[in-house]
Design brief:
With about 325 residues, the protein is α/β, with parallel strands linked by helices. Helices cover about 35% and strands about 15% of the residues. The chain contains 12 helices and 15 strands. The strands form 4 sheets. Strands 5-1-6-15-7 form a 5-stranded mixed β-sheet. A 5-stranded mixed β-sheet has the order 11-10-12-9-13, with helices on both faces. The longest helix is centred in the last third of the chain and has 16 residues. The radius of gyration is 20 Å and the shape is globular. The N terminus is likely disordered.
Length: about 325
């Protein structure tokens, strides 16, 4: 039975569908991506609000985590930014197997192809404004559960990797203002009797990524009774794409992840689809080291500029083909 299900899942994929397997394999290549193209426009942000002292709200005082970031500033004299400028390179933790977010084109040579996607565009925009060259950047591919340790261990200056801003995470890292709005959603085979985040998940095996807000939500909802008690949420994986592979192999019945990521996974495999509506509202932010206020403010200024010139073009290129609807940057408030 399982072998037949695998064949059914793989049948007729072609280049795009096979991308799931290829991208899963690229996860082992957590290497620096060679950068060959250079725009070198030297653009800088303007119109910042200065570098007033301040710290981000602690989790116990947190109400709307997406509104807890510091006001933007174009000042580049802070200690963190000076270290980056002296190094001459921005170190960014990213994904390299999330289709249309951060991935390598599987039709290209994995050793030479560049990372591309919505998050990658944003990372280049940050490098362009801070260092004057979008390609003065060192990408480091990191799994979902290593995002915070990579920042705390000073392996990267920031993480741009579909990372949800949450009160718990504000205990460990600081975030920029939000750059994308999404929500948790269920992904399952089209032939499944699962209808959404409801009673149809009874006795179903659900996959989530370790360290993800999806797992935290499922765990909390199961304890509170919001999620049907017989749903099995024990399957967790290092990277979100691994859940799609588990689903294709028939090892789980459903995947829960951000709807934007789920839409990209559905685009990779025509045998699966989103089930029901999003059941949370979440926001992605750029994560940085706790207390790196100068860098947080500078990134927020980059985002001010990027929302006006860059965000829409990147969304239309990478995400609109899979999400199938228009979108705009999320509203922004600062503490």
């Amino acid at each position: 039975m399982k072998a037949r299900r695998v064949r059914a899942a793989l049948k007729g994929w072609g280049g795009v569908g096979a991308m799931a397997v290829v991208l899963a394999l690229t996860a082992v290549f957590a290497l620096v991506l060679p950068l060959t193209q250079s725009r070198g426009d030297g653009s800088t942000g303007t119109g910042g609000q200065g570098v007033a002292s301040g710290t981000q709200t602690k989790a116990e005082d947190c109400v709307n985590p997406q509104d807890q970031s510091l006001a933007p500033s174009a000042d580049e004299n802070g200690e963190t930014i000076q270290k980056i400028r002296e190094r001459g390179q921005l170190r960014v933790g990213v994904d390299q197997n999330s289709y249309r977010w951060g991935y390598r084109d599987p039709n290209s040579d994995l050793k030479t192809s560049e990372l591309e996607g919505f998050d990658i565009d944003l990372a280049h925009a940050i490098a362009a404004e801070i260092l004057g060259d979008r390609d003065k950047i060192l990408f480091q591919a990191i799994p979902t559960n290593e995002r915070i340790p990579a920042i705390q261990g000073d392996r990267v200056d920031m993480v741009v990797r579909t990372m949800t801003i949450s009160c718990d995470r504000l205990e460990d890292v600081d975030f920029s203002s939000p750059y994308f709005e999404t929500g948790q959603q269920v992904l399952a085979p089209k032939a499944s009797d699962i209808k959404g985040y409801d009673a149809t998940l009874a006795n179903k095996k659900i996959c989530t990524a370790k360290g993800s807000t999806a797992w935290e939500t499922l765990d909390a909802d199961k304890k509170s009774g919001k999620l049907v008690a017989s749903a099995d949420i024990r399957t967790t994986v290092p990277n979100q794409l691994d859940c799609l592979v588990r689903l294709q192999l028939g090892e789980v019945d459903a995947v829960v992840t951000d709807g934007a990521l789920a839409a990209s996974q559905a685009a990779q495999d025509p045998t699966v689809e989103l089930k029901g509506e999003p059941f949370t509202t979440e926001y992605y932010g750029v994560a940085m080291k706790k207390g790196a206020d100068d860098l947080v403010r500078r990134v927020n200024q980059v985002l001010v500029d990027y929302r006006e010139n860059g965000w829409q073009q990147s969304y239309d290129k990478w995400l609109k083909p899979t999400i199938k609807k228009s979108a705009v940057p999320p509203p922004v408030k600062y503490q």
